[in-house]
Design brief:
336 residues; alpha/beta; 2 domains; 9 strands
């Protein structure tokens, strides 16, 4: 599979305290079989040698540009990368992950064949307790659409029903559709989803390959691996943004709100569990009640009919019926 290399691909790599991983990540980029690339590494105020390692690579490869900045989070770092991107296409790689060396060549082959605004592929989870599972396919290999009616039928509903369209690092974007898009810097999680909402709104064509090119390394120190109380508030914002796009995309409100409820209720239940594990008995009850009184959380819990995991369903039942003391006792007995 060979791709015309006339298009410049900008690869944006935010980096923060990833000295252990960043060399492997950069090696996977500089050794791409598609060579017309620029690698923009944003050192987001790292306190280890991440920035130094990136500078050393930049001295050996003029396709690498390193930007050092104060720590402001991954969203700000990615925005800095977009501000400095010169490519015809843009992709994102987190600095503790890596991609196969033929990723861009194969992805650009699809772009040449379909002239798609967005090409999406699958990912492999590394360092997982269950081996190296591959993400479930969202579509058949070569699935392609280029009409608004197809977007409304096949793509938009998935934003509300599952997390397959959350990550930005398993797609390559035509620069024109993201040149004015930026990541929200007030979110500690979920900024990818908000970006993808905007990118998909600006897109008129999409193609999917079921090949897995991206390797998601389970770094225990990464943002997504560690619970913070702020995640509850961030998820509420994501729910609000999702409601906004139901209207913007002219989707059926009742069915899509139910999909959103089933998507986010497991998150809210997991957050409630973490609060139970981390706070004293009475403080946990107070905190949980405060969140359950939020209109968005209340709607999700009330509407959700999620039935995939029995242990979760029991917790959901207890929350729905206000049996918080029973839930606290149950969770502490069956901790982790």
């Amino acid at each position: 599979m060979e791709a015309n290399m006339s298009d410049l691909i900008s690869i944006i790599v935010p980096a923060f305290n990833v000295e252990r991983y960043i060399s492997f990540c950069i090696e996977s980029l500089v050794n791409q079989t598609y060579t017309n690339i620029e690698i923009i590494i944003i050192d987001d105020g790292s306190k280890d040698r991440s920035g130094i390692v990136a500078d050393e690579y930049a001295m050996r490869d003029n396709r690498i540009k390193v930007i050092h900045k104060a720590n402001e989070g991954v969203g700000s770092a990615r925005n800095t990368g977009l501000d400095n991107a010169n490519g015809d296409y843009v992709m994102f790689v987190d600095s503790d992950d890596y991609i196969d060396t033929n990723t861009i060549e194969n992805v650009m082959f699809f772009n040449r064949k379909y002239n798609a605004d967005i090409v999406m592929f699958r990912y492999i989870i590394e360092n997982s307790a269950s081996g190296c599972p591959i993400e479930h396919s969202l579509f058949a290999d070569g699935f392609y659409i280029n009409s608004l009616s197809d977007f409304r039928q096949f793509i938009y509903p998935l934003f509300f029903s599952n997390f397959g369209f959350n990550p930005i690092w398993k797609s390559i974007y035509k620069y024109d559709i993201v040149k004015n898009a930026r990541f929200r810097t007030d979110l500690q999680i979920g900024e990818d989803l908000v970006f993808n909402f905007e990118a998909m709104t600006n897109s008129t064509s999409f193609v999917y390959t079921d090949k897995a090119y991206y390797h998601l390394v389970k770094n225990q120190a990464s943002t997504t691996m560690n619970f913070k109380p702020e995640y509850f508030d961030c998820t509420i914002v994501l729910q609000q943004v999702s409601y906004h796009y139901i209207t913007k995309w002219s989707m059926d409100e009742v069915s899509q709100r139910r999909s959103i409820a089933n998507k986010y209720s497991p998150l809210y239940i997991s957050y409630i569990q973490e609060i139970i594990y981390r706070q004293s008995f009475f403080k946990a009850v107070k905190t949980i009640r405060r969140y359950l009184n939020n209109q968005y959380v209340h709607e999700v819990i009330k509407t959700s009919d999620y039935t995939q995991y029995m242990g979760y369903n029991l917790r959901l039942f207890l929350v729905k019926h206000g049996l918080l003391v029973v839930l606290l006792v149950f969770c502490r007995i069956h901790k982790r």
